[in-house]
Amino acid sequence: HVQLVESGGGSVQAGGSLRLSCSAPGTTNSGYCMAWFRQGPENAREGVAQIEADGSAVYASFVKGRFTISQDNTTKTVYLQMNSLELQDTALYYCAAGPLFGSWYRASNYNYWGQGTQVTVS
């Protein structure tokens, strides 16, 4: 069973930075790729970034150049470094794990989800 636990959310002023972490010990040797999604109060869940086991990453256009996804394969932790935060980045951020299949930004392609961590930009 894969359990994902996010941390690192909080409140920050516009232009500031936060780093989210996702502990994913159950994904060892699973071949899963990892992703970050977010969901605002009135929005559907949307893909933010994905990273594959080999370290290759893709990003949503609205975060490209500001956010960086990375992973530590030793500790099975995935990170999302968020810089130049904007008001529109306010959302509940989720970590997800799933096989490399289909469109990376589709939530339905991921089998496992964390509980979410809130990011509020003011």
Strand content: over 45%
Main beta-sheet strand count, sense and barrel state:
7 strands, mixed
Radius of gyration: 13 Å
Instruction: State the helicity in percent bands.
Output: under 10%
Count all strands and give the number: 11
The H-and-E topology, N to C, reads as EEEEEEEEEEE
Name the overall outline.
globular
Q: Output the number of helix runs.
A: 0
Mean pLDDT reading: 93
Name the structural class: mainly beta
Low-confidence stretches: none
Task: Report how far apart the termini are.
Answer: 37 Å
Question: Would you give an account of this structure?
Answer:
The strands form two sheets. Strands 2, 4, 5, 6, 9, 10 and 11 form a seven-stranded mixed β-sheet that branches. A four-stranded antiparallel β-sheet has the order 1-3-8-7, with no helix packed on it. Strand 5 and strand 6 form a beta hairpin. 0% of the residues lie in helices and 45% in strands. The chain has no helices and eleven strands. With 122 residues, the chain is mainly beta.
Strand and helix map with partners:
Layout: E1 5-7, E2 10-12, E3 18-23, E4 33-39, E5 46-51, E6 57-59, E7 67-72, E8 77-82, E9 91-98, E10 112-113, E11 117-121
Parallel strand pairs: 2-11
Antiparallel strand pairs: 1-3, 3-8, 4-5, 4-9, 5-6, 7-8, 9-10, 9-11
Question: How would you describe this structure in keywords?
Answer:
mainly beta, 122 residues, four-stranded antiparallel beta sheet, seven-stranded mixed beta sheet
Can you give me a brief rundown of this structure?
The protein is mostly beta strands and 122 residues long.
